[in-house]
Structure formats: C-alpha cells, structure tokens
Amino acid sequence: MKLDHIETPAALIDVARMQKNIARMQGQMNTLGVAFRPHVKTTKCIDVVRAQIAAGARGITVSTLKEAEAFFAAGVADILYAVSMVPAKLPRALALRRQGCDLKLVVDNPGAASAIAAFGDQHGETFEVWIEVDTDGHRSGITPEQDTLLVVGLILHDNGVKVGGVMTHAGSSYELDTPEALAALAEQERAGCVRAAERLREAGIACPAVSVGSTPTALAAAQLDGVTEVRAGVYVLFDLVMHNVGVCALDDIALSVLATVIGHQADKGWAILDAGWMALSRDRGTSKQAHDFGYGQPCLLNGTPLAGYVVSGANQEHGILSSTSASTEAEATAGSADDITQRFPLGMKLRILPNHACATGAQFPEYHAVAPDGASVEWRRFHGW
Amino acid sequence: MKLDHIETPAALIDVARMQKNIARMQGQMNTLGVAFRPHVKTTKCIDVVRAQIAAGARGITVSTLKEAEAFFAAGVADILYAVSMVPAKLPRALALRRQGCDLKLVVDNPGAASAIAAFGDQHGETFEVWIEVDTDGHRSGITPEQDTLLVVGLILHDNGVKVGGVMTHAGSSYELDTPEALAALAEQERAGCVRAAERLREAGIACPAVSVGSTPTALAAAQLDGVTEVRAGVYVLFDLVMHNVGVCALDDIALSVLATVIGHQADKGWAILDAGWMALSRDRGTSKQAHDFGYGQPCLLNGTPLAGYVVSGANQEHGILSSTSASTEAEATAGSADDITQRFPLGMKLRILPNHACATGAQFPEYHAVAPDGASVEWRRFHGW
C-alpha cells in the first residue's frame, strides 16, 4: 500500500533508515569486539527483530515475560529478561525454560536470589541468573563495591543457580548531550560492570557474561575491555530525544506518525491534526532538553522536516500544529493566519517525528513498514504483559 | 480470580466505584432534564459501556471510527463520532451507515462540509452532521458568532445533508479547580452552544440536538436550558487530575494499576515497582496542578491511599516509589532507608491511582473488573484506529 492510502493516524517505519541504524550499531559492536543483544522492548515486533538478528545480533533482551513468550514462539531462544525477578513470576519463567527457552533472569537483591534458588530446587530446574549492577545511580542494581553483590552471588552459586553474568544499564545517558560526557559515562558503565564481574570471580563465581548498554553509551564507547556484550533498544528507530542527546540526525529517525490535517483555528495559527496523544503518546522527553520539540516534529510525506513548525499541543485524538516563531497568540494572528491554512490545507498528510520511539510505537497495534519506493506492508506489534 | 493472583502490572476497575460514578452522572443528567451520551474513548470496553447504557445513557460518543465499528458490532447504533471528519475517512463512515449504524459526523469547516455533501450525493447517502462549536478557545470548533457557522450550516443543509445538531466540548475545564470557575465555564459552554443552535435555526436549519460536555462542566452545571444532551467520558473511572479539578474524591477513583515491589534502593529511599510508564502511561497531568501526584498515588490492596508516598519516577517497566517528605537524597538516607524496605517488602502488591484514566487504560489490553468481595473478571478493551 502506498503512503497516500494508509488511514491516519498510523505508525510508519522507514525501512531504509531502520536498516542503516541496525548496520551502524552492529558495525560499532563488531569494531569493539563484543556481541550485541538488542532490547526488543522498543518495537515488540518480530519483523524488526529478524532484521536485527540477520545483521548479527546474538540473542535479545526483553522487558516483560510476554515479550519473552512471543519472541520464543517466533524462534528466538536466547533471551535476557532484564527486569528484576519476583517470586510470583517464576512459574511463567519456568514454563519458558521447560519449553527450551534459554531464558536468563535478573536480580539485584538477596530476597529474589533466595526465592529463585528455592523455586529452582523445588522444581528441579537450574535457572540462569544475571546480577544487575548499578553504575550510574539511575535505577535498580547493586553498586560494584557493595557487599550485597557477593551476598547475592553466593546465595545463587551455593544453591545451584547458574550465575551467568552481570548486567548494567546507564540510563542516565539520556540526560547528557555532549560526546565527551557520553564517552565518560560509557567508560564508567564499562568499568563498573567489569569490576563487579571481577569481584564475583574473585569469590569463586564464574560470571562469564559482562553486559552493558544504553543506546547513547553503546554508540559513544571508545573501548569495551572486559565486556562481552552490549544491549541497546531505541537505536533501531531513534527519536527526537536521541537527536537531542546527539547520537542521531533528524534524518536517521525511522519512526514517524502519519497524520491528516482535519481543521484549523486560523486566528490562533493552528492546524488541527488527527494525531493527538493517543497516537503520539504523552511522552514529552524533549521538554527537559535543549531543544523542546513539543509533541513532535512535523515533516512532509517525503520525510523533509518542516523547520519552524511543531506539534505544540495534544488532546486524545487532536494534535495542534503551530509555528514555533509565533510565541503569542497576537503574533500568530498578525503573521500566520493565512499561512497556516494555505501551507497545511484540509486533508494534507504529514509525518510527525516522535519524542520517544518506545512510547509512541506502543500506542499502535501495527507499524506500516515503508520501502524506499513508498510501498508499505504491515508489521504487527503486541502490547500488554 | 482474587487480586493476589493477578499478574502485575494489571489495570483494575473497582466495579462498585464505577457504578457509583455512573449513577452520580446519570442522576445529575436526570435532574437537569437532559439526555446523556457517554464518551467511550475513556475505556474502549463494551462491559463498561453496557453499564452506562443500563443506567440510562442514550447513545455513545466515540473518538475514532474503530470505536464506532466495535461498539456498533456490539449492538450500540446511536453513535456520535466527535472528531472533525476528513474526506479520506468517509468510506468507512458510509460502510457503517449502510450496515444500519446511526452514525453522526462532526465538522467545523466549509471544506469538510462540502466534501461530505459531495460524497453523500455521489453515493446516495444522507449523512447526518453535527457542527462543532468552540465555546472556550480550547481546541476545534467555530465560535457561535462567526459567519463560518452559517456558511457550514448552509453548505450542509442546501446540499441534502441533515444538520443534526451542534456540539461543543469545554476542555479548558481541566485547567480549573474551584466550583465557581467550573460553574461559570459550564454556563459559558451552555450559552455558547445554545446561541449557535439559535443562529442556525434563524437561518432555517432545524438543528435539533444541542450537545455539550466535559466531565467537570457536566457535574458543575446548575441548569442546562436549551441543551438536549451532555457528553462526558472520564467520570466513569475518574483519576488524579479530576481529583485536583475538584470533581471527585480519591476514593471515587475506580481505576488503579496493580503493581509489585521488585526491589529497593534503600539509601535513596526508593522501592522499585514493576509498573513503569508503559503501565502508568507518560501522562503527568497533575504536574501542572496544585497537587503533583508524580506518576501516581500508591494505595494498599484494599484501596487505602498511602499518604506521604508517591510514584516519583518511571522507566519503561520500572516505577520508583518514594516518600514525598524526603525531598533530598540526604533526608531519604537519614530518615527512610529502613522504612522503605520494611514498609514495602519485596513482592508486596500495591494499587497505583493514575493521573489520567484515558491514558493509563490505553496501555492495557484488558481491565480486571474487581467486585466488592475481591473476585475479578477480565474485561477486554481495544486499541488502534
């Protein structure tokens, strides 16, 4: 189906850009001499993941057990579930392993470690667990020098659970915007995670995998000595937040929301779109960055960004497109009342680049994968837990 | 299924609260002597809509043609599609009408009116169109005194399209928080919409329906002379934004997200939950209100709000629960390191009240409808367009 015939709002993936992003990240990993395990939470779409694997990815990272189940059913067996395990979710994890899924769990505390050991013992299953390391104070994990690291490692190791590795996620990289700061955080992430693995090994725990990553640190890392693999998710599509972080150009962003102009408030300088926050998501990640893109950057159908315009507001099914230079209603009235209706006539279709590809994609049951000749096919994605 | 056995994260509807909210709104409409047409965009769930209709609702309002198709398939025929129509969507609207759906369209501009008239003429279909009126400058619509109102009305009327009514939505009511301001806006909404209908009638256009509404103005209206029906959506579940607007108590909020404590960062005073923004949504509506509830208000399983705690941060599948009194990391370290791990032990389940019921519900494929005895059943909802 051609772009002109897709009903709006719709989530489009520019396949050429996606493939370029995949090749860039895989090339960086190959240069650094580490394996790459993409985080599939960004797209939850088997078509995208097949492209990542075809380019060289080894295994995947998931954020929910539903992702693990769906991708295992689609033929991916090497899966890291990168959210701390809790006892109530162990039966689903066991069921996956019993079906042959090489599912690896993550813990960052003694209680969860003990529960996995006891549950494994009860069911005669040797679980593989990776220990989450906190290298930037951003979220979960045990800092490399905390005694808890060895406590958790030994609870697992001494109770028949395989300690498969350590993993960390320097999520604070999203708050940076210079190459120097990103490179420094990438080195901090690497050094902390390697240090945690060394401490476990000194305690007699093998800990073969050392897994690091976020899209910005993965792309900024100069060397990854001691690291065995990298994880990243949003790089496959990129978005305006990543553009502001400085790791992609606007024309690397492979996800856009196709929208139609459904009306105007000419005296305010507004064109009304049929893409509101239900389509674009409520993610306003760029609001805290140097360049605030509102609810998204409008582009022509061919992908050319419309400089000077932004989706400035959103209701559930209504988006407001306006000029960035009309900072007051009076200015808009003076300068752009005619401009807005003439530049954006009723029925015109636009593509909106989103703040955050993970959040925007999740609003849609499917992507429309658009080839360079403009033809598209549907790629299903799933949601829920 | 009992609450303890529902896998997390999950969206819960407290059915007793929902029924109370439905009865309250329907009672208000009965007192005011107007029909009630609930906006089903909030839940996209036939089980909820059946309860609204059983209580006295007449017809529904939808925000997408997919909602119209799904609810018509489920037996609801009287449907107002309350987003401005564009030509490309007319074939789907026609298909619904041909199947017997009493679908009403909305326009606010001459171009769309002409397109509907031409399309109806071409296909031998008499469409019914309501004209959108702008009574508060919030979004779409034609202001009551604009000449465009009559232009649009006459394009429709003179070209064989039925002008079924006028409709307005005073969405700026979400920005208010006193009974006086809400009552004043309700009157402004009423007066403006009635005035628009009168102008059309003076021009010889019948315009039988006069439809107003938003949850706050519907509940605040003292009289609705000249109005025939009211629309409202979020009242059926309510949320923290509506609590701050002043139209519901915390214990009226019928939607919550069931979450599990999956870890801690005790030195920061954090408990980590398995409900991040993918479950809670990125909607931070309360951030601009007098009481900022972060990503949500934690409650015990029995629904009791945990005063002094908030979901202060969210990653995709991680939520951060912390004390509202620990405004700095040092305070948290001094006062609540033990408190957070003891009050919120690993595996503990909580219910999180959301900022915005429409946005949070959309993150889930289903609700778990919880009866007063704690038993629950699944109510499916749909997404997409």
Automatic annotation (TrEMBL), chains A, B:
It holds the Pfam family Ala_racemase_N. Keywords: Lyase, Metal-binding, Pyridoxal phosphate, Zinc. Its cofactor is Zn(2+); pyridoxal 5'-phosphate. GO terms for molecular function: D-serine ammonia-lyase activity; metal ion binding. Residues 254-371 form the D-serine dehydratase-like domain. The keyword Cytoplasm does not apply. GO terms for biological process: D-serine catabolic process. Gene3D superfamilies: Alanine racemase, D-serine dehydratase-like domain. It comes from the Bacteria. Belongs to the DSD1 family. This is D-serine deaminase-like pyridoxal phosphate-dependent protein.
